[in-house]
Amino acid sequence: PAAQAELSALVQAELRALGAPDTPQAYSRVRVTPLTGLPGGSRGAFAFLGLLLGAAALVLVIAGINVAAMLSARYAGRARDLAVRAALGAGRLRLMRQLFTEVLVLFVLGALGGFIVASAATAGLERLPLPAWVPLTIEISPDLRVLAFAVAASLAAGLAFGLAPALQGARRDITDRLKAESAGGGRRRGRLGRALVAGQLALSLVLLVAAGLFLRAMDRGGRVDPGFDRENIATVLLEPESWGYDAVRSSAFYATLRERMAATPGVTAVAYASRLPLMLGSSVDTITIGAATQEAHYVGVDDGYFAVLRLPLRGGRAIARTDVDGSPRVAVVNQTLARILAPDGEAIGRTFRFRDMDTTVVGIARDAKYASLDEATPPFLYVPLAQIVESRRVLLVRASAPMGPTIVEAIRARDPRLPAPRVSMLADDARVVLFPQRAAAIVTGGLGLTGLLLAALGLYGTVAASAARRTREIGIRLALGANRGDVLKDVIGDGARLAVAGIALGLPLAAVSMPLLKRWLFEVSPLDVATYASLAALLAAVAVIASWVPARRAAATDPLRALRAD
Fold this sequence. Notes:
The chain is of the alpha+beta class.
């Protein structure tokens, strides 16, 4: 509170030094927050990062299940070997210690390999340009703390997923186990391994559904009408005061640059604004309507703003060049605010108080999207830049040809000492509103495909192990005249049954968990039937493909060799 009060006083002193009217109400929203890794400790950002961490944890679970299923199949194949060791005097604890050591070494090696891959991947991500109004750099390279966490998580996963296979492998029923894999032992399948594969497929389906929903949200967001035309508009952020300009020189700089750009061939409209639309944020203040107060979003604009954005007016006029400091205070309001100002009448000509000044409505603009594409339309007003204090402005240039080099040349011609500005296109900048969906789609899609690959490998391993244990049975069937096609269908059916079990478990899991993503899905339903059905079909197709290789190998079994096999 003390820091906040002191900062508010400093802001007011700076405004008085700039000759601005003493209006403390306008800056009563100064806020001091603890320094965190995210601006303002944004809960939404933390929730989004939690979502990505949850997806990564789900892949860890899938990988752990994959390893557990493979270990279960491997220990089933080593059953006689382990039984012989037990018969020779190896205690259960000793067998479990040996098996656990193998598991933990496997998981720790996986953690180290993952750390190396993460280091390379994050180095590449740090070089990717971010869709942002101002240049940003991110530092996400893993350090020793991340390595320690990865090793600890891997050890915990090894303990969690290696326990059941190790207990199964170290059980003491020596006689039964010596008979289990003997000739004529029949068609035994490891139930634990099959259950793990089904669970793995289910979790993979959950990730794939999440990725599919985010892709649908991106597609839906890309087709949302923002209320204005954001194409073919070049933008550049200008901060003359940070270059050492005072108010007089800043004003001259803005005027000269605008005149030069307006005279450039191919330019159809030029404007200044205090901020760009669709930047995941907005300026908010309080207006007074009679005796009531109303929170409203606002932006400072000049007379060319509506022409540049092709933002239509529903009545009245736009901001004019004559709307300067000292002239009557005016504003253009959106349709939402117009309905609040005049529920049963004409809003043009109505007066409200904004920053302790009577402000008259001179125009009504179409409702648009201001901060994000999924926002509920807020009350919004456009006020003349000349009537508010803004230390920086954004130049917007609508043109039929790229204007980046021309804008840079115009700025450097005005003052060669100035740094080269960053010129971008509004359509590119505005993509930041879809950045959470794009990032989530990429991450969950990549993790989902990784999980699907792991699930396919686990399914392949389980079906292959099952087919290998049935070698004698398959040989006998073939020797008695069975069709190889029947063997092929039988083994593929084994994998298909696991896929059906995984889908039957995964669809309810997805239906329960996907509503948690609703805030990032725009108008896409978390229970979108088309997404669920298409990804379930994809999972089933991958399962059939994964089962086809061991099925083909089983169908090609030589009956004579199979009958001689021990």
